[in-house]
Design a protein that fits this description.
This protein has 16 helices and no strands. With 305 residues, the protein is mostly helical. α4 packs across α5. It binds fe (ii) ion (2 copies).
Length: 305
Amino acid sequence: MLDSNVRLPEPHRIEAEFGALPQLPRAVIEMTELDIDSPNFAEEVARIAEMETSIADQVMRIASVQIPLPPEPIDSIPEAVVHMGSRAISELTGSLSALSVFPPITQEHVELWRHANQVAVIARDIAEDRSIGIDPQAAYLAGLLHDIGRFLIFEQDPQALSDSSVRGRPAAPTLIEAERARFGVEHAEVGAMLCRHWGLPTAVCDIVRLHHSVVVADEPLLAQVERCLPIIQQADHLSSLLSRERRLLELPFSERRALIAAHCMSTYRAAASTPTRLAERLDIVVGRSRDLLRNLGLGSSSPVD
Ligand SMILES: [Fe+2]
Ligand SMILES: [Fe+2]
């Protein structure tokens, strides 16, 4: 760990921390490569979930307490897949694997992981509109990792960023300005550097790097990035809106839709989803994210989590 008395660490000083971090479990990388439409999807999910014994044990424990309770205790991953479904097991495996790198010990880490997992769930739901052309599995993992750089920025100097919403959800422009002023680099860049260090696919690294970008001028991007970036931006904005507007779920549909239209459009080229679809799906994604957070031990006092 770096000396906390050293002021203004350069980006390469943050990069020097990477070697001290645990490696991202291989399961996350393999999950990014899964094809949800493959006839072998369930078997592949089970195979990946079994890769890390500690993760597999957690998945089986979580599956064992899902309502309706299984008739017998669950003691294998295939049984967990049968009980919860392959999608739920793939989400749990991806999220538990990511959490193992930055365990949610502090309240700040818990808040960051709540946001990341909520963005993942929303992003996956947007991508389930298959006309967008992004695998929902890939959208989930990009959402899960999009703010991974915030963990490193926060560890550099928790106090320096406390006024700029490290506690709670991001007020993005303020946060990014504070990061640039303090560290000379923002969390999106740090996150992309870390994803590259972990050997994640180029598309994932680029989505993480560009998730706060307004315009990407003259930069040729992979088709997957072009399609997935608006999904992550919309999911990010919707998660932030949910944390600011606690009454969003109680509003009449027209007001809910208007707020989403005002705050949740992608800043990068075309939006992925419409305000109407986002508003229609809101109860479902909030319910899913609440279930996931509870299963991950990230349950909260927030009515929207
Ligand atoms: Fe971010
Ligand atoms: Fe975010």
